Amino acid sequence: MRFGAWCLVSAATAALLLGGCKGEAPVAATSDAASGEAMAETEAATEPAAQASEVPVGGGREEKVENDLYEFSYSYPDAAGAIPGLKANLDKQLQQSRADLIGSAKSGQAESKQNDYPYHAYSYGEDWKVVTSLPGWLSLSSEIYTYSGGAHGMTIFDTLLWDRQAEQARKPIDLFTSKEALSKALRTPFCAALDKERVKRRGGPIDKSDDMFSECIDPIEQIVILGSANGRTFDRVGLLVPPYNAGPYAEGSYEVTVPVTGAVMAALKPHYRSSFSVAK
């Protein structure tokens, strides 16, 4: 269960950047618009037949498209969709992710035909969830699944913080003086928690002869997310570790949670310290 104990709400948001102007458009502009619409219709006709759906979920969004070329899904929750700036941010990501998937899928399909091997539809799925909602912040994380041929797909993660006061998105690491300072503050508890989980999954002591998956890894090279147990301040730091980073693919991804300590507080930029507290 991915940070289930942290989540106050399920979700995340995004948004398209839309443009427009008021007043009567000149004839040339109208002609260009008509040409653009015709071109879009022509391009749409060349796309494989698809089963597409966009499900409104309050302020959130859930979109799915499936055809012979690709499978695409993207969702974010009401809490994210209720914030216009954040919704626009996430919708823009949605459009870019889908465009990138279509481009790579077309290339893969063409390569498979050229080399006479079966083509399997490429996939991209991203599901944003709320980690925690605080008076000044909305903390989000997403789990992303991708497939572009080969034996199996891959799971990765993403994160963002919505700064309610500044009305802009930030990365958790932006709140700290440096990556190095945060890494030093997290390393000891992170490594201990990671090894504990490794032992549980492997059913015995860690094999120290396996250099690849027995050593600790840098917590800051993972996805850092911020959570809260008290609903007022950040007092937990989560590290989302994708497959292969801490163990073989069969072990899947790891999720490690460590408390905010005095060392973590010291690594913060002074401006953000009031948004954190040492875990009780």
Short synopsis of the structure:
The chain is an alpha+beta fold and 280 residues long. The chain is 32% helix and 27% strand.
Can you give a write-up of this model?
The chain is an alpha+beta fold. The chain has six helices and ten strands, in the order αβββααββββααβββα. It has helices at 27-46, 78-81, 84-115, 179-202, 211-214, 262-267, and strands at 50-57, 60-67, 70-76, 122-133, 137-147, 154-163, 168-170, 223-227, 236-241, 254-259. A seven-stranded mixed β-sheet has the order 1-2-3-4-5-6-7. The chain starts with 26 loop residues before the first helix and ends in a 13-residue tail after the last helix.
Q: Spans with pLDDT under 50 lasting ≥5 residues?
A: 1-46, 49-56
How would the global form be characterised?
A: flat
Q: Termini distance?
A: 23 Å
Described by strand count, sense and barrel closure, the largest sheet is: 7 strands, mixed
| Strand order across the largest sheet | 1-2-3-4-5-6-7
- SS content category: alpha+beta
Give the tags:
280 residues; alpha+beta; seven-stranded mixed sheet; three-stranded antiparallel sheet; disordered N terminus
Write the layout of secondary structure elements.
Layout: H1 27-46, E1 50-57, E2 60-67, E3 70-76, H2 78-81, H3 84-115, E4 122-133, E5 137-147, E6 154-163, E7 168-170, H4 179-202, H5 211-214, E8 223-227, E9 236-241, E10 254-259, H6 262-267
Parallel strand pairs: 3-4
Antiparallel strand pairs: 1-2, 2-3, 4-5, 5-6, 6-7, 8-9, 9-10
